């Protein structure tokens, strides 16, 4: 029997319309993983510090562990499942992945950065990736994977 306190939320998920009933306290991360079976976004810290749960909210990286699902009503959400598989190639080639816990968030942020290379005129890749923690690989491989895959219209000296 449906809970009378649930809220119906309609949004676009990876380009598809979604209508789902959620409890007022349900986090977007939990809705994606447990109700919609999209397990790419990971729970790392649960506090918005590590980036493992990164999704795009209206095209901008956001921590899904901090967003109540009801707040995405009428908005567009894209998850790691919407990213083409070849987007990982630069990360894999540079040795930027190891245990995989941070990889979805890193790839989401890296793909966003690749679409916004103008940011590299005023920020470094290291600064732009600050919301993504990696405990295994370290950051050199991640930064190399991103800079190797980014468009070449910026100064590579600014990449680290």
Write the topology of this structure.
Layout: E1 7-13, E2 16-22, H1 28-35, E3 54-57, E4 60-63, E5 76-78, H2 89-93, H3 103-115, H4 125-128, H5 140-149
Parallel strand pairs: 1-5
Antiparallel strand pairs: 1-2, 3-4, 3-5
- The general outline is elongated
CATH class of the largest domain: Alpha Beta
Number of domains: 2
Largest β-sheet summary: 5 strands, mixed
CATH-wise, what's the superfamily of the largest domain? Beta-grasp domain
Distinct helical segment count: 5
| CATH architecture name of the largest domain | Roll
Write the CATH fold name of the largest domain: Ubiquitin-like (UB roll)
Number of strands: 5
Q: Which residues sit in consecutive blocks of at least 5 with pLDDT less than 50?
A: 151-160
Beta-strand content estimate: 15-25%
Radius of gyration: 16 Å
Alpha carbon gap, first and last residue: 54 Å
Q: What is the arithmetic mean of pLDDT? A: 82
Strand order of the largest sheet: 2-1-5-3-4
Helix content: 25-40%
Order of H and E elements:
EEHEEEHHHH
Structural class: alpha+beta
Explained architecture:
There is one protein chain. A hairpin with a 2-residue loop joins strand 1 (7-13) and strand 2 (16-22). This protein starts with 6 loop residues before the first strand and ends in an 11-residue tail after the last helix. It folds into two domains: 8-81, Ubiquitin-like (UB roll) (Roll); 85-155, [2Fe-2S]-binding domain (DNA polymerase, domain 1, Orthogonal Bundle). The longest helix has 13 residues, at 103-115. It contains five helices and five strands. The relative contact order is 0.15. With 160 residues, the protein is an alpha+beta fold. Mean pLDDT is 82; it is low at 151-160. The chain is 25% helix and 16% strand.
């Amino acid at each position: 029997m449906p809970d009378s306190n649930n809220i119906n939320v309609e949004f676009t998920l990876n380009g598809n319309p979604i209508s789902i009933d959620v409890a007022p306290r349900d986090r977007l991360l939990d809705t994606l993983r447990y109700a919609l079976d999209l397990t790419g976004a990971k729970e790392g810290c649960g506090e918005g510090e590590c980036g493992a749960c990164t999704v795009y909210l209206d095209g901008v990286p956001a921590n899904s562990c901090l967003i109540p699902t009801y707040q995405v009503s009428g908005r567009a959400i894209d998850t790691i499942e919407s990213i083409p598989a070849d987007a990982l190639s630069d990360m894999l080639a540079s040795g930027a992945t190891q245990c995989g816990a941070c990889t979805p968030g890193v790839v989401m942020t890296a793909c966003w950065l690749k679409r916004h290379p103008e940011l590299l005129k005023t920020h470094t890749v290291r600064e732009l990736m600050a919301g993504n923690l990696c405990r295994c690989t370290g950051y050199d491989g991640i930064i190399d994977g991103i800079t190797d895959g980014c468009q070449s219209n910026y100064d590579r000296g600014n990449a680290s």
